[in-house]
Structure formats: C-alpha cells, structure tokens
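Raw record, unedited: Glucose-1-phosphate adenylyltransferase subunit GlgD
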Amino acid sequence: MDRIAGIINLDHEQDLLDELTYFRCGAAVPFAGRYRMIDFAISNMTNSRIESIAVFARRKYRSLLDHLEQGKAWDLDRKRGGLFVLPPDWNDPTDISRGDLQHFHNNMDFINRAYADYILVSGSQHVCNINFQEVLEEHKASGANVTVIYKKVNELLPEHALAQKLTIDEDNRVSDIHNDHKSKDVFMDMYILHKQYLLELIEDGIAHGCSHLFAEGIKAKLPDVHMHAYEYKGVHALVNSVESYFRNSRALLDPEKHDDLFKEDFPIYTKVKNEAPSKYLQDSNVKNTLVANGCIIQGDVEDSILFRGVKIGKGAVIKNSIIMQRCEIADHAVLDNVIIDKDCRISEGRTLIGAPEKPFVLAKRKTM
C-alpha cells in the first residue's frame, strides 16, 4: 500500500481575523466550541492513515505549540513518524531560498526521511471532513503529476473572493488557476503529489529564484504540468475573515451541518481538557446553543456557541454570539452578535451589540 506524509503549510496564510489573530496565527484560532482551526487538517490526515505530519509555522506560533504539544490528541506521539512543528530556524549563510520554499528547502530532511511515497500539502483555512486515501487513489488512476482538491460551492460568499478558483475540462484536468469572482470551483489549498516530484520542484524553484512552491513552481507551469482536479462533495467552510468565521461557526448550530462535519466514523480530534460537565442553574434558559464542558449558566443563551469554562451570570442575555474559553459574563449583561475571545470579563449590566454581517469582536484578556 502506498503511504502518504502530510505537510500543513501555514507559511503563506495571512492572519486576517483581526482581533482573533492579534496573539495567535489563524491555525490556532478556536472554532466550534472546543476545537482549533488546525484540528480539522490534522484529524483528516490521521483518519486517512497519515502517520507523519509536519507543520510549517513562521509567525505567532506560541499558542499553536501549546495546543499541539507532542501530538498525543491525534495519536501522533509515536516512535516512528509523528507530528513535527517546524518553525523557521535557518543558519546557512549560503541559503538563497525564500518564501515558503525556504520551509520546504530547509526541512528536506522531513520529506526525505518520511516513510511515504506521496506528500499531501494542506493549509488550515478550509474546514472539511475528507478521506485523503480516496484522493490518492484517484490521483494514481489519473496519471497526473499533481492532484488538487476543490469544492464546487452552491453560493459565492465574500470569503470566496480571496480564494483561488479552477478551470477544469471534461476530463477533470485543470487548465487554469485564477481569481475569477464568478467561478464556483474553489481550490481548497490542498494537493497531493509524488515525493520525488516534490523534491524536484523544490530544487527547480530555488534555482529559478521562486518564493512560493505552488504559485510559482506548479501553477505557473500549466498546462505543461498534468494537474488533476478532485471534487470534494462534503460539508465545507472557508474561514479567512472575521465575518466568515462568525457565519460558518454559527452555521454549525444546524444539527444536519454539524453532524456532516463531526462524523462518528471519521471524528475530529482536539487537545483533551478534563473539566466537569456544564451546569445549568435554576434561572438558566438555553436554546439552540453549542455548550462545551465546564460552563456555568444562570442567564438566557440563544443561537450561540459557548467554549469551555464560560460563566454566564444571572439575568444575562446572550444571543447570536460566540464566547470563548473562561470568559465571565456578569449579571444582567446583554450580548448580541458578539465574538469574545478567551479570558475576557464583561461587567454587570454592560451591553454589547454588533451586526450579523459585522459582529463586535473583543480581543482576549479584556475587561469591559
């Protein structure tokens, strides 16, 4: 059986989530009540029997390191393979590589030593539940140099304006990659290729002064490169802005969408924290809300997401909001269309109101 090694490339991802990425990279942003954005990429890989995974991190990765630790939550704390978080650490004065090609070039040891025939490269901004073994089988059958994964979206949303799109012919061969705002074939920043071909692309890209492996080493060579398109048909969300984060988080309040993403036979894993079950006190009233463990609720909560350890005071009213870990909402506070980051405190009687298309965001460790 052909084996795959995984690379989660965060090097070119921009931190566009405003206050949510003041102190962390986008991959470490909390999502869906108990997870981080990167959990989906890692879980999809481990569920697909990928046992060696590297994370290319360049900026604001302290929170990411704290979350990932040795990879135990994903069964990656192992003697052979495992999880490798690879921040920039280059001391070779003769190194002329740049951009994300620096990461690929200076971590060639990971690629060479990985017990794998193929390499899967992914980002962290596309939330999905996908089996990469199925992608590999289609890649081998197509005879392509590279297979890219895309989603044919039903509706173009603002976040898709920043995403690359594909032009695909009747044989599922990619003829162009572009930013046409009318195209609904959204490239999911995931692709698979043979390990030896990747090594050749890295060396060729550096020799020609390139800085981005995919954009300059692969995309720029179309149509000479045989690029196959694999259509992912499951639940999907692109999170690259505060607005897309807010909308796609609250979409999981729909039980059908939630169950499509969090499948029992293909689970999403995250760092385990042992906390007591949530407490709903006598005056509490909770409707259509995701509630993580460790919460204490006295007030009214509706159409919202509460992360671990949130405290909601008596008479407080929370609607259409996302409250992250260990926040305290005092008595009689009112929150509507609000995102509150970790360890914040909202004082008694305070009112914070945003709009569905522009939620109010409070950065972590703030008091209002």
